[in-house]
Structure formats: structure tokens, C-alpha cells
Design brief:
By secondary structure, this protein is mainly alpha-helical. It has five helices and two strands; from the N terminus they run ββααααα. The chain has a domain of 95 residues. A hairpin with a 6-residue loop joins strand 1 and strand 2. The longest helix has 18 residues. The radius of gyration is 26 Å and the shape is globular.
């Protein structure tokens, strides 16, 4: 048994329009579906990762960024933003090596930390962090 929805539609100018009654069938409730995330694919070679734009293509950038971050940390040990950057870079290296899963890629905020904390201190590190963040965003987005 289907019920009808009565809708009043006004045509014309405000205040002098024609009122018409429409009987429309109810719209079915549709639950939006989210696309299923693609499974984590490991590439066999770095060239394959570069072609597929996977995070594994960043291994050299990650190593260089981590080395630069350690240099900054040596001058300011324990500075929370630098510790956070170091921890995120280590996690990304683990994802590249296959020892950690990609579940937390959406939580990476290297680009934000680069803007707030690194630009002005080490612009090359900031550029590296921005390029790493862009690659992470491509990998973390299900439709990318």
C-alpha cells in the first residue's frame, strides 16, 4: 500500500499565483553508498610505483626529509612539531616498506606543519613535505 504525498505548488507572482494540488508518489529512501576503498597494492619496482603514483615512489624523498628533520631536531630537541613530522615520516617509510598498513594515511598533516613550522627555517624541507603530502593525499583519497 503506497501513500501519496500531497504537495502544494504556487505558480505565478507572489500573492496572486495559482495554487495547484499535485499527488506524487513517495520517493524511495535511498541510502548513499560509499565507494569501497581499493586494496593496498605494493609495487614490485620503484619505477612501477612512480608510474602508478603510489606512496612507494617517495622513498628517497622520505629519507631526505627525515634526515633534514633530524638535523633541525638536533638544534631544538623535543620541539613537538618537529617530533610529529619525524614520527609521520617514519610511519610513511614503514608504509612504503610494507611493515605498516595505510589505514592512517588520512591523518598525515605534513603540509600543514610545513606551512606553520618549517617554512622560513628550511624551505627545501618544506617543499619536500608539501610534495610528500600531495602524494599521500592522492593515496588516501578513495576516488583518486
Amino acid at each position: 500500500m503506497t501513500s501519496l504525498i500531497s504537495t502544494v505548488v504556487r505558480f505565478g507572482w507572489a500573492g496572486e499565483g495559482i495554487i495547484k494540488r499535485l499527488d506524487l508518489p513517495p520517493t524511495p529512501s535511498v541510502t548513499p553508498t560509499r565507494p569501497t576503498p581499493r586494496p593496498y597494492a605494493r609495487c614490485n619496482t620503484p619505477d612501477e610505483c612512480r608510474r602508478n603514483k603510489h606512496i612507494g615512489a617517495l622513498e628517497t624523498d622520505l629519507a631526505e626529509a627525515l634526515q633534514r628533520c633530524e638535523t633541525l631536531l638536533a638544534g631544538r630537541p623535543g620541539l613537538p612539531p618537529l617530533v610529529s613530522i619525524r614520527n609521520q615520516l617514519i610511519y610513511l617509510q614503514q608504509v612504503c616498506a610494507g611493515t605498516a598498513g595505510p589505514e592512517r594515511l588520512a591523518e598525515i598533516i605534513l603540509g600543514l606543519l610545513a606551512v606553520r613550522e618549517i617554512e622560513g627555517r628550511d624551505d627545501e624541507l618544506a617543499d619536500l613535505l608539501h610534495s610528500i603530502q600531495a602524494a599521500v593525499n592522492r593515496r588516501a583519497t578513495p576516488l583518486a
